[in-house]
What we know:
With 125 residues, this protein is α+β, with helices and mostly antiparallel strands.
Amino acid sequence: MPIDATKPYDPDNVFAKILSGELPCHKEAETDHSFAFHDINPLAAHHILVIPKGQYVSWDDFTAKASDEEILDFVRLVGKVARDRGMEQQGYRMLANVGQRAGQEVPHLHVHLFAGEPLGPMLCK
Ligand code: AMP
């Protein structure tokens, strides 16, 4: 069920539980402020999620409220994960769903990284 990204952060969301260790994940990388792990239901041969460790509902919330240090750390980790996986040679797609109408289901900012196969058109309607 898509979420309402204008609501306050829900500390019980599934990615908060991954960050706290309450739920397992297939970890890819970690920095002081960010974390990357494999999507549980991959939509491409490589499908990795990058999230901030801070409590941000969405890209909108993050870019309005996060510190410069958190934003720098996050953006650099998205790029590093892609490079470490050789995605720039294959071509890859980054995606962040923001809010209900964009289909955001988990109310903790995440950037999807897709690669490893031809990715098709940008939007499937
Ligand atoms: P979105 O629709 O942009 O909010 O994407 C949420 C993503 O989180 C989906 O691609 C799910 O497959 C993924 N997901 C949900 N629960 C987990 C989990 N426990 N571990 C890894 N990925 C998850």
